[in-house]
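Example 3.2
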Amino acid sequence: MPILARQPHLYPDDLLERARCEQQISASTAGDDEASHWWALYTLSRREKLLMRKLQTRSIPFYCPLVERRQRAPSGRVRSVFEPLFSNYVFLYGNSATRYSALTTNCISRCLDVTDGLQLTDDLTDLERLIEIGAPLSREERLTAGCRVRVKQGMFAGFEGTILRRDGEARLLVAVNFMQQGASVVVDDCLLEEL
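Structure, written as tokens:
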């Protein structure tokens, strides 16, 4: 049992689908301050969840992928902890007014403008799908060159990514290219096809 209940990591629930539709429609209005786009908010140390709570109370759309980690306390009790997949990062979707409102929360160190919002939306959608199906994700700090593959069948059918070799096992890397980070999951070689 977690100490606190799991808080929403995606607000509103349809944010990724809505962002994809809006970005495809408004591709011609680039540079407009009133058009919504992605911002990567770099938080102060260990303030991701506090920022998410404050953004939700202000009805500001955000996404922060949370993964469950099990930790054993010194007493022997096992506790579930929901940690951000990317430490200190929360993704905000909005215009300059919502960005300013987020900056007034006193939880943000830096605010980075995302140049390719559609690519980021695709990357975050892939990560969300992996989290929803409960895949055991490992954080990958730096992207390395590898073979681009697609999973043909099984639980991860349709996912595309780069294949990595770690500890003698094949891992599918799903990358967030904007951050040059990603997450990987173990897959069987026989389920992969090269792109």
